Request: fold
Amino acid sequence: MESLEERRPAVLLFHGLCANPMELAPVAKSLREVGYVVETPAMAGYGVSSATGEQLPVPPFEHWLAEATAAYDRLAAKHGRVAIGGLCMGAVLALALAARRPAAALVLISTTLHFDGWNVSPWRRLLPLAYLPVFRRRMSFKETAPFGLKNERLRAWVEQAMASNHVSAVGAARLSAASLYEATRLIRHVRARLTGLSAPAVVLHATEDDVSGPRSVHELRDRLGQQPEVHWFHDSYHMLTLDNERIAVARTVRDFLLRRHPLATLSPTSAFGDFHEQHA
Reply:
């Protein structure tokens, strides 16, 4: 007989590139409070340690996706239904996972299909040179203010943490060229699969996103297999889950999931088994 814990639907959330689960804490807390089982995995070579700031060697993005798939399979085996989501590159990883496994719903926060925000350096155009094998393992790029945060108090705290080489809630002080190279490969992988994704989706994005402009939202709206629900936020930058509107962001995610991934409805476990056999 199923326990109450096993009957609760699950939510799997992925943090951003070279970051850690701390940046998802407000959303995860809001969802756990209403009854969801929430996991925010830390994956080696994708994020950084929240204790030491260490990042292990960066593997091909296929390894990230394999770890994400394994996390999904563990949750689905126990809970049946799993919603998938993430922040920034975590949202892109969630989309890649949804092409492999049946997402009960998709939560896409600050989705970065294009690095075209207002704080992205024009030197980014030369990034393909850093992807050459001779440079990829050695080069890294320093994060610069405002660090995705419009909130000045939080920004000052992050800046202090980065100056002392400590990891902050928004991640590491530097992004390795190897990480950005694999992120670019992941984006290409996902963009080729958007039209095949038909799970109900919510898209949350800042109108002043400093990393990824409106183009990413327009692409999701135009190319996802099912029209997403889109919410714009006007008093935050890229780090929506931590910035000025973090409470509204968490509430928007919670309300969407309560409607599209309800706590009281259970899906037969055989549905997952059938899909798994077809897509393994």
About this structure: Residues 266-280 have pLDDT under 50 and may be disordered.
